[in-house]
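Service request form, structural biology core

Requester: graduate student, group of Dr. S.
Request type: structure prediction, single chain
Budget code: on file
Notes: please return the result as structure tokens.

Sequence provided:
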Amino acid sequence: MLRKYYNFITRVFLRNKLEKFPKIYIFIQSLRLRNKKNKEFKLFSKKTDLILEGYPRSANSFAIRAFKFPKKNIDLNISNHLHSIAHIRLGIINKLPVIMLIRNPIDAVVSLNSFRTQVLIHRKQDPKTFFNSWDIKWDFINYINFYKSSLGLTDKMVIANFDDVTKDFGKIIIQVNKKFNKSYGIFEHKKINEKQIFKNSWFHLSPNNDRNKYKNKIKKIIKEKRMAKIIKESLDLYNLILEKR
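Core staff response, request fulfilled:
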């Protein structure tokens, strides 16, 4: 019970408060993640060329790989995978191109928790241990905190819906070029290029049958009566963001 209370305070409540001060939040994350081995992950720095951010499981990994797929873009320094509005705010403050990814909240939360389950099993850990100290409802709260904070900033970014990212990402780059007066290389969204991206990626990126088998359990949880209000709020916010594209 104490662990659950601690997780809410640090990973939901305090996170939302600290993200209002993006420089402080980024500094804290730089300390926490200084030993992170993922070379793709990049925090904001003076070298950042572009910000690409979204809630987890909103095609973040696919988008970063697709953006850097054209040879012209391969050396771009793209800050990504913090899953925080702080990254977006810093990008806007520094007048950088910003892409904000978004996905239907139910799909995103179901995918996030089925992925968590898969990772825990892969590490030979019991998923029940995690879910005993975490409430899936908090994932919707984090979703709402992220996108609600973006409402006054939407005219300064390109908003990319999950379906557009996964089906025609080249269109997103064209929008970025037009909005920010850039000439980035355009990703040709062909099956052969998709396969190349999936081939060189960890199992978290591509569609995965093992992960799919955990989704029904997650869907049962979010259908609980106590979840109805928070889900409606997140869906209303999702539709509002899409209207601002």
